[in-house]
Amino acid sequence: MKKTTDSYSHVLKYTGIFGGVQGLNIVVSLVRNKLVAVLLGPNGMGLVSLFNTTVNFISQATNFGISFSAVKHVSELFERGDEEAIAHFVKVVRGWSLLTALIGMLVCIVAGPLLSSYTFAWGDHTLHFILLSPAVGLLAITGGETAILKGARQLRSLAIIQIYTVLSALLISIPIYYFFNQAGIVPVIVLMAMVSMLLTIRHSYRLYPLRLRGAKGILGEGMAMVRLGVAFVVAGVLGSGAEMLIRSYLNVVTGDLDVVGLYNAGFMLTITYAGMVFSAMETDYFPRLSSVNNDVTALSLTVNRQIEVSLLIVSPMLAALIIALPILIPLLFSSKFLPMVGMAQVAVFAMYVKAITLPISYITLAKGDSVGYMVLEAIYDVILVLLIIFGYRQWGLFGTGVALSLSYVFDILFVGAYTYWRYHYRVSMQVLQYAGIQFTLGICVYIVTLVDNPLIYWLLGTLICLASLLVSLSILHQKTSLWSALTTKLKNRFHHHD
Q1: In whole angstroms, what is the distance from residue 322 CA to residue 109 CA?
Q2: Distance CA 35, CA 43 (A)
């Protein structure tokens, strides 16, 4: 029994730590987005969104998945404690990162006219895409150095880099947008990529200094890493491509950047920000899952435990988000963004489902089943694009929110069926029980948002949110020893002072 308790405590602790770092990042990002929304309006936000998704798309299409696959290789060498081999492999990673940076920049410059005509319904933006090419190159170098830090378990450095990056984004973007308005969008994207790279190499070069001697012929040694990364590149490209396609569709069909800005703001609020609890998955959960990937029982136990903790932590936050959106949106953006309230409220349900789907989808990665992972991602992306197009045609912006939630429902059916068939993974009765309780409370909160009376809206909404919080706290209290550990620590502290 003690082992179970400790395991729950471990999951809760690390989900809390990485979620906390993400939470701080999100608070700063929210302040920044609020100021950017006021300075640029929905139209400018739409433009930022189109440029950013295009840069990310090219970056993922040309980086050969090094930012992901290098982590596995560096981590294996780090586990062995072979410093000489690590130093040599770091050189291999850096060589490949530089090559992919040059390829990415070249693609961005050459594809400029095509990207301009595809992404925008008006005007020639070729020059903008050529000027954005350095950002693609800088992202490739940052990705390689981040992978080195992850593989060497430098979690503190990664957290510091994240915090400084978002603070820099605030300090750089606001003055530029204030003085140059939309003309500052491209310089801000390039400058932010540069700051992110400088912060990352400051930590990674200190750990493994840059050595150019003996660099000849190292690219040939990285082929295994590149092969592993290609499947993840394809999955990433499909995801970014789907996002680009959706935003371009909304822009070209409506001819209105405001709609893209509203959709993007709603997407950021629900899918991106609510996902902060899931940031522990890659850093803590994924290595644990990989270590038990050959034991069916241990694998199912690890996955189910992660789902339970993620679901219990995120559900009260999601219930509160649904009820608070009419106040949050003018506060975080501006009153011009109020048309997206309905869309964002219904899109929140996607996050309830993601809390269950994400830990399960990591099984394919832990097993090294890159093809299975790629196929599942491709199916999800196709369903997402088709549902968004259908949803927007039927119910406008609100329909895109419905589509986002439905796409996650389809995703869990496919991922669940595949892992059940291929790896004999079983969802536990406890997961289904907790999901049933919290999802029901979420639906109750959503029903309250349809009430016109403000008194009933806030009173009932707050009560249901509290119920969701109490359910989560009581279950986590039963399952973990964190509470007793915390009280023991406090008692010891007081006795020490006495």
Answers
A1: 42
A2: 14
DSSP string, 215-243: -TTGGGGGHHHHHHHHHHHHHHHHHHHHH
Residue 16 CA to residue 276 CA, distance in Å, equals 10
Closest to 279 measured CA to CA, from 358, 349, 352, 347: 358
Sorted by sequence, the CB contacts under 8 Å of residue 145 that are 6+ apart come out as: 94, 97, 197, 200, 201, 203, 204
Closest CA to 12 of 442, 479, 487: 479
Q: How many whole angstroms separate alpha carbon 35 and alpha carbon 41?
A: 10
CB contact at 8 A, 414 and 441: no
What token pair was written down for 439? 């999802």
Question: Roughly what angle, to the nearest 10 degrees, separates helices 155-180 and 133-151?
Answer: 160
The H or E element spanning position 4 is helix 2-62
269 DSSP 8-state letter: I
Q: What is the pLDDT of residues 200-248, one digit of tens each?
A: 999 999 999 988 765 566 777 777 678 767 877 888 778 878 988 898 8
In single-letter form, the type of residue at position 186 comes to V
DSSP H or E segment with residue 125: none
Q: What is the rounded CA–CA span in Å between residue 78 and residue 83?
A: 7
Residue 180 — very low, low, confident or very high, per pLDDT cuts 50/70/90? confident
**331 or 403, which is more confident?**
403
| Interval 385-444: pLDDT, tens | 999 999 999 999 999 999 999 999 999 999 999 999 999 999 999 999 999 999 999 999
C-alpha–C-alpha distance, residues 111 and 83, integer Å: 41
Question: What's the N-to-C CA distance of the chain in angstroms?
Answer: 35
CA distance 142 to 334: 33
Q: What are the phi and psi torsion angles at 214 (to 5°)?
A: 80, 20
Query: Would you call 2 exposed, middle or buried from its count of C-beta atoms within 10 A (0-12, 13-18, 19+)?
Result: exposed
Percentages of the chain per state (helix, strand, coil), in multiples of 5 = 90, 0, 10
Q: Rounded CA gap, 266 and 392, in Å?
A: 14
- Please give the Cα distance from 275 to 355 (Å, whole number): 9
Nearest CA to 8 out of 472, 432, 483, 479 is that of: 479
DSSP class of 271: I
Look-up of token digits 């690390």: 14
Q: Which residues, in sequence order, are CB contacts of 112 under 8 Å at separation 6+?
A: 126, 127, 129, 130
Name the amino acid, one letter, at 99: L
Please report how the helices 454-479 and 429-449 are oriented relative to each other, as an axis angle in degrees rounded to 10.
160
- Count CA within 13 A, CB hemisphere, residue 166: 18
| Whole-Å CA distances, 297 to 77, 415, 416, 437 | 28, 18, 16, 26
